């Protein structure tokens, strides 16, 4: 057992396949044979820019963090998992000692070892080592692709349920119809949403959102010549209210806004469309230096929250929602690749569509020697 082919980012736009040592596991860890890995915007961002904010790729790093696999080896102290178990892998191992870990917000742990966030290697290899409690057994009715998709679904669960405190009968507006935005809509729908409003500048993405989880869709107006973004956001919010009959408060108003786009105009419009005393959660990452109207935040007493990955309870709830049939992840897997074709998978995700013109929602790469069609 010495064969651990891995997909390694060496520098900007420089990736290669390399043999890496098979990780040694601690008594409380398991070694997982990775089966399915979804490609995320952040993986592509590291490939193109070598960094995200203060996270800079200085040494070669294995990519990938949205994974499922089969337990290959268990540490001496592990109970509840055995060789052959199919698991979803939560990719952030936290310190368990710091104030945030102790307070039950381990996503804020300063010492987290998160897959494919420098300097830590990711999951696009044959083997990945993980603390046993972060390997969640998959119920029999979930596929290994579902297991990989639990990662972005947990991001949505964290934003909508944990931070957004969403409840049945409430209304949500989601800006940005990429995978995370779509999954936020799915979570709201699964939780009994009354209205799920999707916003995006691409009509095809709105069409998919409508077919999948949204009750209403909105295509914002294009900017006029010399129109500032704040002015455009005022016009967009007004048009959105009129077209979709969204009142400022009461029945039909927006209790929770999620921005999954990171676009300045979406943030501005989202704050305006949120009801008084409503909640706004930022989950999309874009240019951090943007202008927002603090008067809107103050006068409506908006709860403005940042969302970072996922925390306690998010993976289990994500798995439950799928297992209970409340969320179907299968329509979101648009592309599938063999391990050897990882480069094509990244190129396709980056372009947003494959050569046949099919739009990418989520591309999945199979582990080394794992058949593409396997579940
Ligand atoms: Zn991701
Ligand atoms: Zn910690």
From TrEMBL:
N-terminal signal peptide = none
Q: Name one Pfam family in it.
A: ADH_zinc_N
Keyword Oxidoreductase listed = yes
Q: A single GO BP annotation from the record? A: sorbitol catabolic process
Q: Which SMART domains match?
A: PKS_ER
Keywords noted in UniProt: Metal-binding, NAD, Oxidoreductase, Zinc
Which Gene3D superfamilies does the entry mention? Medium-chain alcohol dehydrogenases, catalytic domain, NAD(P)-binding Rossmann-like Domain
Identify the cofactor(s). Answer: Zn(2+)
Q: Where is the Enoyl reductase (ER) domain?
A: 11-361
- Kindly indicate whether the keyword Signal belongs to this entry: no
Q: GO molecular function terms here?
A: L-iditol 2-dehydrogenase (NAD+) activity; zinc ion binding
Cross-referenced InterPro entries, in alphabetical order?
ADH-like_C, ADH-like_N, ADH_Zn_CS, ER, GroES-like_sf, NAD(P)-bd_dom_sf, SDH-like
> The organism sits in which domain of life?
Eukaryota
- Family according to the record: Belongs to the zinc-containing alcohol dehydrogenase family.
**What is the designated name of this protein?**
Xylitol dehydrogenase
């Amino acid at each position: 057992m010495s064969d651990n082919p891995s997909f390694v980012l060496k520098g900007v736009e420089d990736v290669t396949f390399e043999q890496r040592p098979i990780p040694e596991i601690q008594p409380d860890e398991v070694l997982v044979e990775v089966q399915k890995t979804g490609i995320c915007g952040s993986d592509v961002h590291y490939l193109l820019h070598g960094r995200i904010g203060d996270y800079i790729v200085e040494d070669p790093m294995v990519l990938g963090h949205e994974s499922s696999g089969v337990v290959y080896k268990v540490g001496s102290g592990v109970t509840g998992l055995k060789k052959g178990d199919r698991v979803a892998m939560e990719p952030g191992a936290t310190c368990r000692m710091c104030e945030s870990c102790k307070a039950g917000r381990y996503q804020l742990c300063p010492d987290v070892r998160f897959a494919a966030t420098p300097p830590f290697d990711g999951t696009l290899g044959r083997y990945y080592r993980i603390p046993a409690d972060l390997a969640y057994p998959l119920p029999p009715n979930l596929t290994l692709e579902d297991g990989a998709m639990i990662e972005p679904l947990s991001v949505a669960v964290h934003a909508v349920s944990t931070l957004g405190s969403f409840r049945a009968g409430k209304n949500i507006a989601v800006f940005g119809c990429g995978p995370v935005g779509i999954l936020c809509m799915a979570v709201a729908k699964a939780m009994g949403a009354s209205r799920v409003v999707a916003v995006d500048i691409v009509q095809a993405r709105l069409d998919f959102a409508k077919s999948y989880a949204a009750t209403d869709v909105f295509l914002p107006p294009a900017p006029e010549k010399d129109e500032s973004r704040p002015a455009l956001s005022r016009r967009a919010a007004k048009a959105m209210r009129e077209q979709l009959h969204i009142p400022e408060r009461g029945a039909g108003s927006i209790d929770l806004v999620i921005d999954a786009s990171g676009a300045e105009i979406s943030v501005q419009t989202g704050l305006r469309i949120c009801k008084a005393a409503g909640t706004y959660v930022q989950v999309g990452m874009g240019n951090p230096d943007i202008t927002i109207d603090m008067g809107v935040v103050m006068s409506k007493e908006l709860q403005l929250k940042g969302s970072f990955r996922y925390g306690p309870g998010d993976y289990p709830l994500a798995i439950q929602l799928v297992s209970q049939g409340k969320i179907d992840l299968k329509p979101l897997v648009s592309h599938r690749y063999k391990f050897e074709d990882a480069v094509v998978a990244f190129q396709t995700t980056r372009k947003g569509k494959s050569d046949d013109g099919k739009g990418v929602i989520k591309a999945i790469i199979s582990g080394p020697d794992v058949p593409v069609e396997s579940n």
